[in-house]
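Regression check, heme C case 427:
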Amino acid sequence: MKTLRSLALGLIAALPMLATAQQAPLPQDDNYKHQGVASCASSFCHGALNEKSTYTVLQNEYITWTRHDRHAKAYNTLLTDESKRIAANLGLKNAHTADMCLDCHADNVQDSQRGVLFDISDGVGCEACHGGAEKWIGTHITGSASHSDNIAAGLYPTEVPEQRAELCLSCHYGTKDKFATHKIMGAGHPRIGFELDTFGALQPAHYKVDDDYGQRKAVNSHVQTWGAGLVVAAEKTLSTIASPRFKGGLFPELSLFDCHSCHHPMDDKRYAPRPQTGGIGPGQVRLNDSTFMMLRAFIEPVSPSDAKALLNQTQKLHQASTRSMSAVISASSQLQGTLKRIADRIKDKPFSNSEKQAMLRQLVKLGQQGEYRDYVAAEQAVMAIDLLLLDLGQRSANKAKLDKLYAAVENENRFRHSTLRQALRAF
Ligand code: HEC
Ligand code: HEC
Ligand code: HEC
Ligand code: HEC
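Current build output:
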């Protein structure tokens, strides 16, 4: 039985965990007024032309976003011929006025939440990620409030990897309210792939993780960010697969599967068994299981038993997918249990270099076992190898080998598993 003292100690130890473990409402679902990018963009605030040293932050975030970040163009994308064609195929009047598109390509909050400077054509603006600024815009300038006060006032905790993953994946995977369905893709929308760490760098980052950043916020390694993103993506995949919302005609939602298990020419006979599919055999539509595969490589050095459970349960999920929805739901819930264990195990865990080396070896090994036959997994593996080398400080030494990996996955329509396997031998 716990004494009061140990209970109290336990509580104190649990407090910081609780503060970060709770999922904040996503900016798109918060109840604050969104003030618009123009309220952030003054040259004294975040619109400086160059980095400044007046405050702890760079102050040129707006310039980085507007010049180099695709999110700033997300609304304009809806005005292109490509989007017009997608909209026409879907029977929409316009892409740029349809919630179906705006929900991901802009900060599409309700009218009552749009401040005077709010402009929908800003696309995915500051507050689409940082949360409606109504209550924190004042205090975050005067410095009268701490970071956690600002968070309590609606600033989204983008620095916490799990919460960042929920944020990015809300558009780069989907939520219960919005999803890039196969119908949208069939109308011409590109496939959506994502990896939290790589895409964070590609965005590109408008913040510098330096000493003063480290004093204000927790600093995470590339591997920690990768792992957090994988767990959230895997959870989202399972809840989407098992959700009844896509029940339509004879077929389930096709975007949950490996696109190329359907989309490749018939004279290109490429079938060979792949271990993680649990022997479902030829002629089956394979679920997109790439996040589970990456999680296996990630967790093997830390907890071999979890890696084994993941393999076993993913195989069961594939087998269930050829039987019945109830089998799928039961296989999903087993996997969910494993994910929960992994999430607890890796929370705030630092990873040693030898663990990272071992992850790298696992990634190469999976390739040799033929697990990257499906493009989705190949793409994820290359991004993962890249970020591991970055964390290990071996990226520039391996530049030529990495280039070969990237070349092998550059075009998904011409992807050849054997080319990637060859490129992996160098590791
Ligand atoms: C409100 C929805 C939304 C959120 C939240 C969001 N994105 Fe995006 N993102 C988009 C859209 C839409 C595009 C495509 C923009 C375009 O080209 O029109 C995009 C594009 C990108 C690209 C460019 C992709 C490429 O192929 O070049 C990167 C990188 C990216 N996002 C990273 C992130 C990261 C990292 C996060 C989380 C910190 C994030 N995104 C959060 C909607 C979102
Ligand atoms: C679930 C979120 C989501 C929805 C819904 C969505 N998109 Fe996208 N869209 C994205 C993301 C994310 C990207 C960037 C993909 C990447 O490059 O990784 C994107 C990319 C695009 C691109 C390619 C942009 C480029 O620069 O190459 C077009 C065109 C596009 N979307 C149009 C639309 C239209 C039109 C609709 C409505 C019918 C729509 N999207 C609905 C998330 C979404
Ligand atoms: C697609 C999501 C996204 C968009 C859009 C976005 N940010 Fe960020 N921002 C992030 C992430 C992720 C971080 C890094 C995590 C953190 O420090 O909170 C960040 C960090 C920051 C920081 C903190 C830097 C530090 O040293 O603490 C500032 C300031 C900032 N962003 C301002 C802006 C401004 C201004 C805009 C609009 C011009 C903007 N952001 C648009 C995702 C986004
Ligand atoms: C179960 C098989 C299956 C899977 C899996 C699948 N598709 Fe499709 N796809 C189809 C069928 C069937 C059509 C309609 C073909 C037609 O109209 O000729 C189609 C049409 C398309 C089209 C339009 C092609 C055209 O000619 O205009 C695109 C683009 C597309 N799919 C993308 C994707 C993407 C991206 C994925 C993965 C996220 C995917 N598909 C997964 C079966 C599939």
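Comparison notes: The chain has two domains: 26-216, 222-366. The pocket of heme C (ligand 4) is lined by residues 182, 185-186, 191, 254-255, 257, 259, 261-263, 285 (CB under 6 Å). No diff flagged against the previous build.
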